[in-house]
Amino acid sequence: MRHIRLIAATGTAVAALALTACGNGTGTEDEGAASPKATVAAAETDVSKSPESSSPAKEATGGGTTDASPLSRTDASSAKSAAPTTRKGQSTGRSVVLCNGTNTAVTAQPLNRPLNHMLLTVKNTGSKSCDLPYYPVLRFDQMQWVPQADEGTEPQSVVSLAPGESGYAGVLLSAADGSGSGGMTAHKLTVGFQGMTPNSDGGPSATPALPAKGVYYDSTLKVTYWQRDLDAISNW
């Protein structure tokens, strides 16, 4: 038995020596299988040098690339588009609550100075800050047209009211020189609110009370943009 083991051991040594000397039958030396650690290290080196390594969401498909995670791109795009913006396009970075008839108290006060003017005041009665985009949309009685805004009164950004704060808009009711047409006396006023895009719906309207004698207006009727400070339209 000992003799057999010795022969077997000798045969194994000879075979190993022959394999080292003769190679793999092609005349080249066979260095054996690559070390697993060396293979992993080489793969990591190749990936780090690849231009695609900076975009892990992309994987090769044939001759081009495809986004392996389209949801991540969609979510990012949606988040960006959902971010509220000011009138000049700057992000407010917060969720927008619009001022409208549900969270404000609105009053309409005819003025002696300037002549034929009226002041609209919107007070935030809610528990959150609210925004007043653009200008009020006015309707006297059953009026079939919408008064335009004086573009020269547009503020630098959307008016935002903290709880308890007020915003303002001026209304030119009629021409002082009588040049307007279609004059009539109204007894009801509806104040509409706009959303964050022009002419969009900002929510429920308000119906502030008018004087018992009514308010006279004509074809020159127009409004200012909403203002945070009354001084901005005091001389309008």
Automatic annotation (TrEMBL):
Disordered: region residues: 26-95
Keywords carried by this UniProt record: Signal
UniProt feature, compositional bias: Low complexity: 48-60
Methyltransferase found in the keyword field: no
Residue intervals of the DUF4232 domain: 99-227
Cited InterPro entries: DUF4232
Signal sequence residues: 1-23
Record-linked Pfam families: DUF4232
Biased segments, Polar residues type: 66-95
PROSITE patterns: PROKAR_LIPOPROTEIN
Name listed for the protein in its UniProt record: DUF4232 domain-containing protein
Organism: Streptomyces nogalater
